[in-house]
Amino acid sequence: MNKFFYLYNLSKVQEMTISLALILKILILTQTLSSEVVGIMDGDTIELKMVSNNTKAKTRMGKNLRIRLAHVDCPERGRPFYQNAKKFTSDKCFKKTVKVIHNNEYDRYGRLIGEIILPDGKNLNQELIKSGLAIHYKKYSSSWSYAQLEIKARVKEIGIWAN
Prior knowledge:
Layout: H1 2-29, E1 31-42, E2 45-51, E3 64-69, E4 72-73, H2 82-93, E5 97-106, E6 112-117, H3 124-130, E7 135-136, H4 144-156
Parallel strand pairs: 3-6
Antiparallel strand pairs: 1-2, 1-5, 2-3, 4-7, 5-6
């Protein structure tokens, strides 16, 4: 019995060590910036009032910083719910100061990929999925929490999931 107890506790210690290492890695790699939103390109792309000076921004360098919302994909122009998603994003953050949580990753268009924290503390990316105005972008995200939010919106049959 003591041997089992020792092995059980050892595995718990290993789990905690791995968890702490993961948390530290996330804290080290994750960065936050804060700025006013001056443009809404579509439901999942906003523009901040700050000059982009990172070479990864490509042609966006020296211009206002564009943010591509991580984990989500909103309908494109001309598709159903495009205007709804764009208006939702605009209503939530246009001319407001938001926080962007990011890993300093840029997409092929020079947009910084990040999660938007609204002035009320809510996560815009998650709110879009909860409202049925975006899907979990599984091609670029393996987030379990975003997958669960999409499933809940589908079950509720709201937004793009309405029949």
